[in-house]
Amino acid sequence: MDRTTIATDEGASTAMMLTVFAALMLLIAAALTLIQVHVAASRAAVAADLAALSAADAARGLMVGEPCALAESTIRAHGASMTTCQLEDQGVVHIEVRLGVPIGLDATAASRAGPKLP
Fold this sequence. Notes:
Layout: H1 12-59, H2 67-77, E1 81-87, E2 93-100, E3 106-113
Antiparallel strand pairs: 1-2, 2-3
Helix pairs in contact: 1-2
């Protein structure tokens, strides 16, 4: 008995399309992850900047309230948390902010506000 097996390429295009589809889904997931991290970093930077400005104004007597408490309320309004608030002489304030990203990472930002240093 002579059996000859003829190799055909039936189903090869289906396997190739599944591979292409899986690679495309992986690229889309990676792009969405990077976009989420970038947006969170931008939100953390905005929260840090605004909190530092309000704290510096309060430290210089331009606003009523305790500087770090004002910074904390500003940061909380942006959905972030304050990690440090340092007051220096002449109304200079350093703020560090942390914002959680839904994928389990944290975005951080720091800001300084106050009068120009000599």
